[in-house]
Design brief:
alpha+beta, Butyryl-CoA Dehydrogenase, subunit A, domain 3, 3 domains, 11 helices, 14% strand
Length: 354
């Protein structure tokens, strides 16, 4: 991590520690904590970190934004910070000035398509758009493989259903019925739906890695404090084995996620190497989320399933993040197809180059 990355991460960590304590958030029933947290983040420029200053943002590097996402994952707060970061990145890549306020991005599933009509309006349906109901605007990638555009769409112009994610957060189907964008611009070369999905994969992978890091700390602390048969349960071999397995999953997810984030931060285009990094990160972090959630709940026992305990805030969000921008099954199949097309002779050089 560079010095600048460290400063950004420390700023984010300080804001989250002051205004998003997991225990206080979990006890809150009215969501009153969200307003002050978002205001503090916005005043620090963190939601628009990936937007250049001349487009209304903070002008930070990609690595800075990923550092913010790592901190956000460790707090697993139910705010559209990652979605706003990603929306700002998409809009600024097309040269659009980015408005203030919470945003989300569409499409959020690899199979969904938004069409650009001849009259400049947008039509189509995007499923599972995270925090769509809480966002003011959408950053939309529309068109097809031959011609794509990026648009800003007011959420009030779209139809939304009332769906939620596994973590009970808005995860809405957004319907575009000849919606007129507030602004629109051609997508630059190389920015297609696959590139957007890959960027989303790395965003979610970094968040999952941060959440896993948090639940490892929670689990180790609890195992050292919880006493059974006159000694801490962390002294029992079975619990130690589970904690070691959890640590392994955390390490694997963090390594894959940070490698993909570093690769994107240094890359000029979304080539095959980035495809390998991003898909591998999403596959491995999603697997770690599933395994890590199971292990953590085993360590905590029944208490970890209660609404009063904070563990579910992490595990449910990790499991719901697996589906955003394509789940691990989708990307495992896509990665397998790409490797097969390249041929056996190209497999090892591609892997070894990473």
């Amino acid at each position: 991590m560079s010095e600048n990355d460290s400063i950004v991460a420390e700023t984010a960590a300080r804001i989250f520690a002051d205004l998003a304590d997991p225990q206080k958030v979990n006890r809150s029933r009215d969501g009153a904590w969200k307003g002050p947290l978002w205001q503090a983040l916005a005043e620090s420029g963190l939601p628009l970190a990936w937007v250049p200053e001349h487009h209304g943002g903070a002008g930070a590097e990609l690595a800075d934004g990923f550092a913010i996402l790592g901190v956000a994952g460790r707090y697993a707060t139910a705010i559209p910070l990652a979605e706003t970061l990603l929306a700002g990145w998409l809009l600024s890549r097309a040269g659009l000035s980015v408005p203030d306020g919470a945003m989300s991005v569409a499409p959020a599933r690899p199979g969904d398509r938004i069409a650009l009509n001849a009259d400049g309006t947008l039509s189509g349906k995007a499923r599972g758009v995270p925090f769509a109901r809480d966002a003011k605007r959408l950053a939309v990638l529309a068109g097809d493989k031959k011609s794509s555009c990026v648009a800003i769409v007011e959420m009030s112009a779209c139809r939304l259903n009332d769906a939620t994610s596994l973590a009970s957060e808005p995860s809405n189907t957004v319907t575009f019925d000849c919606v007129k964008p507030a602004a629109i611009a051609p997508a630059p070369a190389g920015l297609d739906q696959t590139a957007l999905m890959l960027m989303g994969c790395v965003v979610r992978s970094v968040e999952i890695a941060g959440a896993l890091e948090a639940i490892l700390d929670l689990s180790v602390r609890y195992a050292n404090e919880r006493v059974a048969f006159e000694k801490p349960i962390g002294k029992f071999q079975a619990v130690q084995h589970n904690l070691a397995r959890l640590a392994g999953e955390v390490s694997a997810a963090m390594t894959a996620a940070h490698s993909a984030a570093d690769a994107i931060a240094q890359a000029e285009m979304f080539d095959d190497a980035i495809f390998l990094e991003a898909t591998a990160a999403k596959i491995r972090s999603a697997e770690a989320a599933q395994e890590g959630a199971a292990i953590a709940h085993q360590v905590f026992g029944a208490i970890g399933f209660t609404s009063e305990h904070i563990l579910h805030r992490y595990t449910l969000r990790m499991l719901s993040w697996r589906d955003d921008f394509g789940n691990e099954s989708y990307w495992a199949e896509a990665l397998g197809r790409k490797i097969a097309v390249r041929g056996a002779d190209e497999f090892w050089p591609l892997v070894a180059s990473r």
